[in-house]
Amino acid sequence: MPEIHTHTFSNGLTLVAEPMAAVRSLAMTLLTPAGVARQPEAQQGVAPLLAELLSRGAGGQASRDFNEALDTLGVHRSVSAGNQHMRLGATLVGDNLDAALPLLLSQALSPNLDEKELEPSRDLCLQEIAALEDDPQRRAMIALRQNHFPEPLGRPSDGIAEHLKALTLGDVRSYWQSGVVAGGSILAFAGQLDWDKLRDTVGELTSAWSGAADDVKPTKDGPRGYTHLEAQTEQVHIGLAYDAPADPDEASMLQRAAVSVLSGGMSSRLFTEVREKRGLCYSVYASYAGMRDRGAVLGYAGTTTPRAQETLDVFVGELRRIAQGVEADELQRAMVGTKARLIMQGESTGARAGAIAADLYVHGRPRTLAELAERVDSVTLEDVNRFVADRLVKDITAVTIGPERLNFPE
Predict the structure, then answer these.
(1) Which CATH code is given to the segment(s) 226-402?
(2) What's the predicted TM-score (pTM) here?
(3) Could you name the CATH architecture of 5-205?
């Protein structure tokens, strides 16, 4: 396996890159500390608004000229506001990096933040919030995160409409200056690259970038418990969450294995027991969300009003029943699926750039595919069963959306 290179510049920016000899493409991920958790309490929406404006002209080029230049180079790109970070992503043919990189980095270093682009950007952000009324599944999961995670880590990525309407361009500029900074930022590349040349080029382009920001710390616990949001619909949306090991914890792989048994495919327990055998719902799943200092298992089920109570009862029952143990064939299927996803990720430059950037933030270092595969292979049935027996599923946070409140199982 090729070496994954890292270098931290004097301004605090960390560069990480994984050469992939068999590809011609190159992917970039920039994580910079301007996520939604950093927003001022009364400006929840400034992060997604900034994300929209970053792609509307930079380095003195107007929005149309800027985007035409990147399109001409065949660059596929995105900007989004996550929890702790603003994420800028791009994929391109590696041969075009020299021409594309100054443009891509200018989005963070010298965005135009043009007054005439403010209202169109605000309108798009407000449309995202309004669309939640037509997407109750997403609305349920947003409410679930708000209730389960501590403030400000559970904030919705779309913001709050009233806050968005009141934001000025000065607010956006101030947020960019405080959050899009070199110290605490991670710039990752994967694909066709020359490490020495890349390091020198990035160093030159970012030499004037300054500032630093630490992680945002929790201020108060989420309310947790059971919350019902009334909606006169024929469908009921159920979101469930409970605590799990943080991603750097050695037990996180055992948690991933247990969740894969629950929700790793069409032969998984939730799909089989809740959907197939009983026909209770049209959708059901669980996933592990591992972060640097905490983790959670998040689950969802979508059903009809007459079947809602039974769906909730069986859903919670299956989450708790796993403490009784996992069968050997269940674990084998789960880990084969995990290994397959890992292999497919290894063939995608975009996935690898995102993965090594996240690894550097969460684990303090990038991890190779070989190391990750070894972790998967090291999981044993005895270890998983010991883990699920020791970590009983309790203190579940629940959110339902529908016409009637349900009775949460004891």
Answers:
(1) 3.30.830.10
(2) 0.95
(3) 2-Layer Sandwich (3.30)
